[in-house]
Write a structure and sequence with these properties.
By secondary structure, the chain is an alpha/beta fold. The protein has 10 helices and 8 strands. This is Glycosyltransferase family 2 protein.
Protein backbone atom coordinates (compact mmCIF):
# COMPACT_ATOMS: atom_id res chain seq x y z
CA UNK A 1 0.00 0.00 0.00
CA UNK A 2 1.30 3.43 -0.96
CA UNK A 3 0.82 5.65 2.06
CA UNK A 4 -0.58 9.16 2.06
CA UNK A 5 1.86 11.87 3.08
CA UNK A 6 -0.28 13.28 5.91
CA UNK A 7 -3.21 12.61 8.15
CA UNK A 8 -4.65 15.87 9.49
CA UNK A 9 -7.13 16.39 12.33
CA UNK A 10 -9.12 19.62 12.54
CA UNK A 11 -12.19 20.64 14.54
CA UNK A 12 -14.38 23.67 13.89
CA UNK A 13 -17.54 25.17 15.33
CA UNK A 14 -19.06 26.81 12.22
CA UNK A 15 -21.04 29.45 14.08
CA UNK A 16 -20.69 32.10 11.37
CA UNK A 17 -19.45 32.64 7.83
CA UNK A 18 -16.06 33.86 9.04
CA UNK A 19 -15.31 30.56 10.79
CA UNK A 20 -16.43 28.61 7.73
CA UNK A 21 -14.22 30.80 5.54
CA UNK A 22 -11.19 30.07 7.74
CA UNK A 23 -11.82 26.33 7.53
CA UNK A 24 -12.11 26.58 3.75
CA UNK A 25 -8.79 28.46 3.65
CA UNK A 26 -7.13 25.56 5.45
CA UNK A 27 -8.69 22.96 3.15
CA UNK A 28 -7.78 25.03 0.09
CA UNK A 29 -4.16 25.23 1.23
CA UNK A 30 -4.02 21.44 1.57
CA UNK A 31 -5.67 20.95 -1.83
CA UNK A 32 -3.30 23.43 -3.43
CA UNK A 33 -0.39 21.33 -2.17
CA UNK A 34 -2.03 18.33 -3.81
CA UNK A 35 -2.49 20.10 -7.14
CA UNK A 36 0.89 21.86 -7.21
CA UNK A 37 3.15 19.32 -5.51
CA UNK A 38 1.29 16.00 -5.55
CA UNK A 39 1.01 15.96 -1.75
CA UNK A 40 -1.61 13.48 -0.55
CA UNK A 41 -3.53 13.77 2.69
CA UNK A 42 -6.28 12.25 4.77
CA UNK A 43 -8.13 15.10 6.48
CA UNK A 44 -10.52 14.31 9.31
CA UNK A 45 -12.72 17.29 10.22
CA UNK A 46 -15.12 17.39 13.17
CA UNK A 47 -17.81 20.08 12.96
CA UNK A 48 -19.25 20.87 16.39
CA UNK A 49 -22.70 22.13 17.43
CA UNK A 50 -24.27 21.01 14.18
CA UNK A 51 -25.70 17.98 12.45
CA UNK A 52 -25.38 19.44 8.98
CA UNK A 53 -22.34 20.59 7.05
CA UNK A 54 -22.86 24.30 6.26
CA UNK A 55 -21.07 24.30 2.91
CA UNK A 56 -20.84 22.29 -0.26
CA UNK A 57 -18.48 19.40 0.41
CA UNK A 58 -18.05 18.14 -3.15
CA UNK A 59 -15.18 20.49 -4.07
CA UNK A 60 -13.29 19.31 -1.01
CA UNK A 61 -13.66 15.62 -1.82
CA UNK A 62 -11.82 15.82 -5.14
CA UNK A 63 -8.17 15.84 -4.09
CA UNK A 64 -7.89 13.17 -1.44
CA UNK A 65 -9.54 11.37 1.43
CA UNK A 66 -11.50 13.90 3.50
CA UNK A 67 -13.89 12.79 6.23
CA UNK A 68 -16.48 15.20 7.65
CA UNK A 69 -17.85 14.28 11.08
CA UNK A 70 -20.50 16.21 13.01
CA UNK A 71 -21.56 16.39 16.64
CA UNK A 72 -24.67 18.24 17.86
CA UNK A 73 -22.95 19.88 20.82
CA UNK A 74 -19.74 21.66 21.73
CA UNK A 75 -17.01 19.56 23.31
CA UNK A 76 -13.56 20.47 24.58
CA UNK A 77 -10.70 20.66 22.10
CA UNK A 78 -9.03 17.58 23.56
CA UNK A 79 -12.30 15.62 23.43
CA UNK A 80 -12.85 16.68 19.81
CA UNK A 81 -9.41 15.49 18.82
CA UNK A 82 -9.96 12.18 20.57
CA UNK A 83 -13.22 11.67 18.66
CA UNK A 84 -11.29 12.15 15.43
CA UNK A 85 -8.36 9.97 16.46
CA UNK A 86 -10.71 7.17 17.52
CA UNK A 87 -12.49 7.48 14.17
CA UNK A 88 -9.13 7.17 12.42
CA UNK A 89 -8.14 4.15 14.48
CA UNK A 90 -11.44 2.37 13.93
CA UNK A 91 -11.10 2.93 10.18
CA UNK A 92 -7.39 2.03 10.04
CA UNK A 93 -6.51 5.51 8.76
CA UNK A 94 -3.39 6.05 10.86
CA UNK A 95 -1.70 3.16 9.10
CA UNK A 96 -2.41 4.82 5.76
CA UNK A 97 -0.32 7.96 6.34
CA UNK A 98 3.30 8.79 7.11
CA UNK A 99 2.90 12.01 9.11
CA UNK A 100 0.31 13.43 11.48
CA UNK A 101 -0.64 17.02 12.30
CA UNK A 102 -3.43 18.83 14.17
CA UNK A 103 -4.00 22.17 12.39
CA UNK A 104 -6.57 24.55 13.88
CA UNK A 105 -9.45 25.57 11.66
CA UNK A 106 -7.94 29.07 11.37
CA UNK A 107 -4.50 27.81 10.35
CA UNK A 108 -3.20 27.25 6.83
CA UNK A 109 -0.15 25.89 5.04
CA UNK A 110 1.72 28.27 2.71
CA UNK A 111 2.81 27.18 -0.75
CA UNK A 112 5.51 24.53 -0.73
CA UNK A 113 5.49 23.85 3.01
CA UNK A 114 3.85 20.43 2.94
CA UNK A 115 6.17 19.27 0.15
CA UNK A 116 9.26 20.40 2.05
CA UNK A 117 8.02 18.70 5.23
CA UNK A 118 7.45 15.34 3.56
CA UNK A 119 10.81 15.59 1.80
CA UNK A 120 12.55 16.38 5.08
CA UNK A 121 11.12 13.34 6.85
CA UNK A 122 11.91 11.14 3.85
CA UNK A 123 15.56 12.22 3.96
CA UNK A 124 15.84 12.11 7.76
CA UNK A 125 14.44 8.74 8.74
CA UNK A 126 16.17 8.99 12.12
CA UNK A 127 13.76 11.75 13.20
CA UNK A 128 10.16 11.39 14.37
CA UNK A 129 9.19 14.96 15.28
CA UNK A 130 9.49 18.35 13.60
CA UNK A 131 8.31 21.67 15.01
CA UNK A 132 8.42 25.20 13.69
CA UNK A 133 6.76 28.56 14.38
CA UNK A 134 3.47 30.04 13.22
CA UNK A 135 2.32 33.53 12.35
CA UNK A 136 0.16 35.63 10.07
CA UNK A 137 2.92 36.00 7.45
CA UNK A 138 4.45 32.56 6.92
CA UNK A 139 7.25 32.04 4.43
CA UNK A 140 6.01 30.91 1.03
CA UNK A 141 7.89 28.17 -0.78
CA UNK A 142 10.45 27.66 1.99
CA UNK A 143 13.61 25.76 1.20
CA UNK A 144 14.40 23.76 4.31
CA UNK A 145 18.03 23.38 3.20
CA UNK A 146 18.47 27.15 3.39
CA UNK A 147 16.75 27.64 6.75
CA UNK A 148 18.32 27.59 10.18
CA UNK A 149 17.72 24.32 11.94
CA UNK A 150 18.32 22.85 15.37
CA UNK A 151 18.29 19.09 15.90
CA UNK A 152 17.91 17.48 19.34
CA UNK A 153 16.52 20.71 20.77
CA UNK A 154 16.42 21.49 24.46
CA UNK A 155 13.14 20.93 26.33
CA UNK A 156 12.89 24.69 26.92
CA UNK A 157 12.75 25.38 23.16
CA UNK A 158 10.30 22.55 22.64
CA UNK A 159 8.00 23.87 25.38
CA UNK A 160 8.09 27.43 24.06
CA UNK A 161 7.40 26.53 20.44
CA UNK A 162 5.12 23.50 20.42
CA UNK A 163 1.53 24.02 19.35
CA UNK A 164 -1.00 21.94 17.47
CA UNK A 165 -0.29 24.00 14.36
CA UNK A 166 3.46 23.53 14.37
CA UNK A 167 3.86 19.92 15.53
CA UNK A 168 4.46 17.19 12.93
CA UNK A 169 4.87 13.58 14.09
CA UNK A 170 5.33 10.26 12.35
CA UNK A 171 2.12 8.27 12.68
CA UNK A 172 4.00 5.31 14.17
CA UNK A 173 4.83 7.53 17.15
CA UNK A 174 1.30 8.95 17.28
CA UNK A 175 -0.04 5.44 17.82
CA UNK A 176 2.26 5.13 20.84
CA UNK A 177 1.30 8.53 22.27
CA UNK A 178 -2.39 7.70 22.07
CA UNK A 179 -5.20 10.11 22.92
CA UNK A 180 -5.23 13.67 24.22
CA UNK A 181 -5.71 14.23 27.95
CA UNK A 182 -9.34 15.33 28.26
CA UNK A 183 -8.65 17.13 31.53
CA UNK A 184 -6.77 19.69 29.42
CA UNK A 185 -7.79 22.11 26.69
CA UNK A 186 -10.22 24.83 25.78
CA UNK A 187 -13.54 23.90 27.34
CA UNK A 188 -12.02 21.26 29.63
CA UNK A 189 -11.40 21.15 33.39
CA UNK A 190 -7.99 22.80 33.01
CA UNK A 191 -7.73 25.53 30.39
CA UNK A 192 -5.05 24.94 27.75
CA UNK A 193 -2.03 22.67 27.81
CA UNK A 194 -3.43 19.87 25.64
CA UNK A 195 -1.05 20.55 22.74
CA UNK A 196 1.99 20.81 24.97
CA UNK A 197 1.03 17.67 26.90
CA UNK A 198 0.65 15.70 23.69
CA UNK A 199 3.92 17.05 22.32
CA UNK A 200 5.84 16.32 25.52
CA UNK A 201 4.54 12.77 25.63
CA UNK A 202 5.81 12.31 22.08
CA UNK A 203 9.05 14.04 23.07
CA UNK A 204 9.58 11.61 25.94
CA UNK A 205 8.61 8.51 23.95
CA UNK A 206 10.81 9.25 20.96
CA UNK A 207 14.42 8.14 21.20
CA UNK A 208 15.35 10.01 18.03
CA UNK A 209 16.52 13.58 17.37
CA UNK A 210 13.88 16.29 17.05
CA UNK A 211 14.08 19.02 14.42
CA UNK A 212 13.20 22.65 15.09
CA UNK A 213 12.96 25.26 12.34
CA UNK A 214 12.78 28.68 14.11
CA UNK A 215 11.03 30.36 11.19
CA UNK A 216 7.34 31.19 10.67
CA UNK A 217 6.41 28.34 8.34
CA UNK A 218 2.75 27.75 9.26
CA UNK A 219 -0.01 30.30 8.83
CA UNK A 220 -2.09 31.32 11.86
CA UNK A 221 -2.86 34.53 13.67
CA UNK A 222 0.21 35.86 15.46
CA UNK A 223 0.96 34.65 19.01
CA UNK A 224 -0.49 36.91 21.71
CA UNK A 225 1.18 37.71 25.04
CA UNK A 226 -1.96 37.16 27.10
CA UNK A 227 -1.92 33.48 26.12
CA UNK A 228 0.90 32.86 28.62
CA UNK A 229 -1.28 33.81 31.59
CA UNK A 230 -4.55 32.43 30.21
CA UNK A 231 -3.10 28.98 29.64
CA UNK A 232 -0.62 29.00 32.54
CA UNK A 233 -2.38 26.26 34.50
CA UNK A 234 -2.68 23.94 31.52
CA UNK A 235 0.93 24.42 30.45
CA UNK A 236 2.23 23.84 33.97
CA UNK A 237 0.09 20.73 34.35
CA UNK A 238 1.41 19.37 31.04
CA UNK A 239 5.02 19.91 32.05
CA UNK A 240 4.35 18.39 35.47
CA UNK A 241 3.00 15.20 33.93
CA UNK A 242 6.29 14.64 32.08
CA UNK A 243 8.67 16.13 34.65
CA UNK A 244 9.66 12.76 36.09
CA UNK A 245 10.88 11.60 32.66
CA UNK A 246 13.82 13.99 32.51
CA UNK A 247 15.84 16.17 34.90
CA UNK A 248 15.68 18.92 32.27
CA UNK A 249 11.89 18.74 32.23
CA UNK A 250 11.86 18.83 36.03
CA UNK A 251 13.88 22.06 35.82
CA UNK A 252 11.39 23.45 33.30
CA UNK A 253 8.58 22.62 35.73
CA UNK A 254 10.24 24.67 38.48
CA UNK A 255 10.96 27.45 35.99
CA UNK A 256 7.30 27.55 34.93
CA UNK A 257 6.22 27.97 38.56
CA UNK A 258 8.63 30.91 38.78
CA UNK A 259 7.01 32.37 35.66
CA UNK A 260 3.63 32.02 37.39
CA UNK A 261 4.92 33.95 40.41
CA UNK A 262 6.08 36.72 38.09
CA UNK A 263 2.66 36.81 36.39
CA UNK A 264 0.99 37.16 39.79
CA UNK A 265 3.34 39.95 40.88
CA UNK A 266 2.72 41.85 37.65
CA UNK A 267 -1.08 41.38 37.91
CA UNK A 268 -1.24 39.25 34.80
CA UNK A 269 -2.52 36.19 36.70
CA UNK A 270 -4.84 36.00 39.69
CA UNK A 271 -3.25 34.46 42.77
CA UNK A 272 -6.21 32.10 43.23
CA UNK A 273 -5.70 30.79 39.67
CA UNK A 274 -1.95 30.45 40.25
CA UNK A 275 -2.46 28.53 43.49
CA UNK A 276 -5.09 26.22 42.01
CA UNK A 277 -3.08 25.55 38.85
CA UNK A 278 0.17 24.98 40.75
CA UNK A 279 -1.41 22.52 43.20
CA UNK A 280 -3.02 20.57 40.34
CA UNK A 281 0.32 20.44 38.51
CA UNK A 282 2.29 19.33 41.55
CA UNK A 283 -0.23 16.55 42.11
CA UNK A 284 0.15 15.52 38.47
CA UNK A 285 3.94 15.53 38.79
CA UNK A 286 3.88 13.39 41.92
CA UNK A 287 1.35 10.98 40.46
CA UNK A 288 2.90 11.15 36.95
CA UNK A 289 -0.35 12.52 35.51
Amino acid sequence: MIKKDFILFTTCEPVNEARVAELKRLMNSVDKSFNADGISAIHVILLQSTTQIPFETEPYLQTGARHFLTIDRRVSLSKARNIMIEFAISNALLDQAELCAFPDDDAWYPDGFMKQTTSYFSLNKNQDILITKYGSKPISNPNFDELKKTVTIQPSSFIRNTSSNTLFIRTALVKSVGLFDEKLGLGAEINGGEDLDYGLRAFCLSNKPIAFFPEVLVGHRDPMRWVVSKYYSGSLYAIGKSASSSPKLAFQFIRKIAVGIYLVITNQLAFTEFRKGTMQAIKAAVNKG
